[in-house]
From TrEMBL:
Keywords assigned: ATP-binding, Ligase, Nucleotide-binding, Purine biosynthesis
GO molecular function: phosphoribosylaminoimidazolesuccinocarboxamide synthase activity
Pathway assigned to this chain's UniProt record: Purine metabolism; IMP biosynthesis via de novo pathway; 5-amino-1-(5-phospho-D-ribosyl)imidazole-4-carboxamide from 5-amino-1-(5-phospho-D-ribosyl)imidazole-4-carboxylate: step 1/2
Protein name in the entry: Phosphoribosylaminoimidazole-succinocarboxamide synthase
Organism: Sphingomonas tabacisoli
Stored PANTHER family: MULTIFUNCTIONAL PROTEIN ADE2, SI:DKEY-6E2.2
Enzyme Commission no: 6.3.2.6
Catalyzed reactions: 5-amino-1-(5-phospho-D-ribosyl)imidazole-4-carboxylate + L-aspartate + ATP = (2S)-2-[5-amino-1-(5-phospho-beta-D-ribosyl)imidazole-4-carboxamido]succinate + ADP + phosphate + 2 H(+)
Keyword hit for ATP-binding: yes
Domain SAICAR synthetase/ADE2 N-terminal: 6-235
Length: 259
């Protein structure tokens, strides 16, 4: 079998050349990073869980008319996606004070915000993904005014949908990160949702206990990362209630079966 050509490797995913022009294969890794990759580790089975969770959410978003890069899931760790030109802006939607917002403004973590906040960060690891304003985006041409309108509208729409989705399974959507890309049709560019939506890029708290069900368990050395990701997948109906029967790592599964 011909070796696939790797296009890009990030902290949590690898992109390979797709089977057809304009497509890529997105591979989800078990690698975990925090604080701009200053802290590194592995969460066994994370890639499989994030693949399933992101597939599920992107599929639902597509059904309500949000354009995304997702085409279909190929296997346990891979998705077929549309190739896009990534807009170099991370969009963070905040419903509850947590993380850097709490530290930056001195607001107690867990405080419900009076209104949803949409923040923008410049995608540059060397600079630590700094917080930017729409003035910066316009000044340096990172996105056009029309693109920013589309991005902000989609971010709010995704937030409204996901708040309801997670509330229905007893989870509070505290905040989350989105990325967007351009698809070109001759000289016309269309903005669509890209990357992933998973516990890696969302803060998800149990509504009754405030237990963290996301990557903060890794960031803050709380332990139980795999169990937290599994719990999110279970509540979304993607894993059986008895998680012992789920296959999260094919190699380990084969070893257990003596193959």
């Amino acid at each position: 079998m011909a070796r696939r050509r790797q296009i890009y490797e990030g902290k949590a995913k690898i992109l390979y050349e797709g089977p057809e022009p304009g497509t890529l294969i997105q591979y989800f890794k078990d690698d975990a990073t925090a604080f701009n990759a200053q802290k590194k580790g592995t969460i066994s089975g994370k890639g499989v869980l994030n693949n399933r969770i992101s597939e599920h959410i992107f599929t639902l978003l597509g059904q309500i008319g949000v354009p995304t890069h997702f085409i279909r899931r190929l296997n346990m760790r891979e998705q077929l996606i549309r190739q896009v030109e990534i807009i170099p802006i991370e969009v963070v939607v905040r419903n509850v004070a947590a993380g850097t917002l709490s530290k930056r403004l001195g607001i107690e973590e867990g405080t419900q915000l009076p209104r949803t906040i949409v923040e923008y960060y410049y995608k540059d690891d060397a600079l630590g993904d700094p917080l930017i304003s729409e003035e910066h985006i316009a000044c340096f041409g990172w996105a056009s005014q029309d693109e920013m309108h589309d991005i902000t509208d989609m971010a709010i729409r995704v937030n409204d949908f996901m708040c309801g989705l997670f509330a229905g399974i007893g989870i509070r959507l505290v905040d989350f990160k989105l990325e967007f890309g351009r698809i070109w049709d001759n000289d016309y560019a269309r903005t669509i949702l890209a990357d992933e939506i998973s516990p890696d890029g969302c803060r998800l708290w149990d509504m009754e206990t405030n237990e963290k069900l996301d990557k903060d368990r890794f960031r803050r050395d709380l332990g139980g990362e795999v169990e937290a990701y599994q719990e999110v997948a279970r509540r979304l109906g993607l894993l059986p209630e008895d998680g012992e029967n789920s296959v999260l790592d094919l190699e380990s599964h084969r070893k257990r079966r003596g193959r």
